[in-house]
Design a protein that fits this description.
This protein has about 260 residues and is an alpha/beta fold. About 40% of the residues lie in helices and about 15% in strands. Among the domains are: about 80 residues, NadA-like (Rossmann fold, 3-Layer(aba) Sandwich); about 80 residues, NadA-like (Rossmann fold). The protein starts with 6 loop residues before the first strand and ends with a helix. The strands form three sheets. The protein has a four-stranded parallel β-sheet, sandwiched between helices. The chain has a four-stranded parallel β-sheet with strand order 8-7-9-10, with helices on both faces. It contains twelve helices and ten strands. It is globular, with a radius of gyration of 19 Å.
Length: about 260
């Protein structure tokens, strides 16, 4: 929203570009590859939320930002991994809460807030590939390394208490910038390792799993980004009726945080 640019090239996945398009309706939002979706976002559909609401008419639906615009349009609040605790604590204590779609992030937020939360059984395949056994091996091999964990990780429920920090990806970057430590075990999608190693060549970073890679993100290549700018395609748009409803949970999040 803060940019003066008329065109935004979003080298991410589709729900990210959708959110940018809704927040910046006067700008052109491009994405290098329309097929860059999100397996986690695909695990919840608008109709499934409507079904839950029919059974819990007084309930509150909270969605992770990793959801489609159509799903956001059915929700009351949107959260990121950074502000989820703050948003949930804002909701009246007597309310039933459905959190979609990430089970592991929902479990983390449930533990942190002590709230009654119905958890959807969605997951990010890249983060779910990070298993406790591998983390145990790395911690034994690198006892001086700081252990940084993303709350989407499949090992979250078993090893959350062992992490030095539970952080979003951007939170990890900021923490490494400040930390005097020289070794880190990084439990998130492995694309972050390139950024960390580039910014801190003197430090060592160990992936919590060699398999924690998002094939959707990898669809975005330099060649596709270049061609998107040359052709000004593909453009990401959101149906105005859906956008009007989907922006409400996002705005509520922004108002709280």
């Amino acid at each position: 929203q803060a940019t003066d640019a008329k065109v935004i090239l979003f080298c991410g996945v589709h729900f990210m570009a959708e959110t940018a398009a809704m927040l910046c309706p006067d700008k052109t939002v491009l994405i290098p590859d329309l097929a860059a979706g999100c397996s986690l976002a695909d695990m919840i559909l608008p109709g499934q939320i409507r079904t839950w609401r029919a059974k819990h008419p007084e309930g509150v639906v909270v969605c992770y930002v990793n959801t489609s615009a159509a799903v956001k349009a059915e929700c009351d609040y949107c959260v990121t991994s950074t502000n989820g605790v703050k948003v949930l604590e804002h909701i009246p204590a007597e309310k039933d809460i459905l959190f979609v779609p990430d089970y592991y992030l929902g479990s983390y937020l449930k533990a942190k807030t002590k709230r009654k939360i119905h958890l959807w059984k969605g997951y990010c395949p890249a983060h779910a590939a990070i298993l406790p056994e591998k983390v145990d091996e790395l911690r034994a091999a690198h006892p001086e390394a700081e252990f940084l964990m993303h709350p989407e990780c499949g090992c979250t429920t078993k090893q959350m208490h062992l992490a030095d920090q539970v952080l979003s990806t951007e939170g990890m970057v900021q923490h490494v910038n400040r930390s005097p430590a020289t070794e880190f075990i990084i439990a998130t999608e492995n694309g972050l390792l390139h950024r960390l190693r580039t910014q801190h060549p003197q430090k060592r970073f160990y992936p919590a799993s060699e398999h924690a890679s998002c094939h959707h993100m990898q669809r975005n290549t330099l060649e596709k980004a270049f061609m998107a700018l040359v052709k000004m395609q593909p453009v990401v748009t959101v149906d105005p009726q859906i956008a009007e409803r989907a922006i409400r949970p996002i705005q509520r999040m922004l108002d709280i945080t």
